[in-house]
């Protein structure tokens, strides 16, 4: 009538091989791989190395994580905007991408320590956008930089491309009247 706790275990049995430091089954092991809360089992010290697939070889320093994010976003940017990229300049301090977008020619400056440091954009001096629109474009990019730090570079460029477009100049000829 009542289920006894002897049939249902709340926690799996501890792996004696893991506690000795030599379980060869790894993640396939049916026993719990848990370390003692205090002291060491059997009075001797055992070193446990926890490896998870390819992560075992990764250097997990904060700088390397930021570099991985930066490299990933640079690759995304290169793939997504490869037809619009006119020139790329790589220096120790930053990477510069000269892009021909619907809003005009834009230089995207990506600092070496991105995403810890924000990116910035520069418009070409001969931009067809009015000064007020250029200022709005800068403010739009900056507001997205500061408010939504999780936005990727591609998402930011998509946003400014869709928000600010250069319309062709009106033709000088008037339409025929009927």
TrEMBL record:
The keyword Metal-binding applies. Gene3D superfamilies: Zinc finger, CCCH-type. Keywords: Metal-binding, Zinc, Zinc-finger. This is C3H1-type domain-containing protein. InterPro entries: Znf_CCCH (IPR000571), Znf_CCCH_sf (IPR036855). Signal peptide: none annotated. Residues 9-36 form the C3H1-type domain. Transmembrane segments: none annotated. A zinc finger (C3H1-type) spans 9-36. Pfam families: zf-CCCH. GO terms for molecular function: zinc ion binding.
């Amino acid at each position: 009538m009542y289920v006894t706790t002897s049939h249902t275990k709340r926690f799996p049995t501890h792996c004696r091989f893991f506690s000795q430091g030599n379980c060869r089954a790894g993640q396939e092991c049916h026993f719990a791989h848990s370390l003692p809360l205090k002291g060491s089992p059997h009075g001797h010290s055992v070193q446990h190395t926890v490896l998870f697939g390819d992560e075992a070889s990764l250097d997990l320093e904060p700088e390397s994580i930021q570099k991985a994010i930066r490299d990933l976003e640079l690759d995304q940017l290169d793939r997504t905007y490869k037809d619009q990229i006119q020139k790329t300049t790589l220096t120790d301090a930053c990477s510069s991408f000269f892009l021909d977008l619907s809003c005009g020619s834009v230089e995207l400056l990506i600092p070496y320590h991105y995403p810890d440091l924000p990116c910035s954009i520069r418009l070409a001096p001969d931009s067809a956008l009015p000064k007020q629109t250029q200022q709005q474009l800068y403010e739009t990019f900056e507001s997205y930089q500061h408010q939504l730090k999780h936005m990727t570079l591609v998402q930011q460029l998509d946003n400014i491309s869709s928000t600010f477009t250069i319309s062709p100049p009106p033709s000088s000829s008037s339409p025929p009247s009927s």
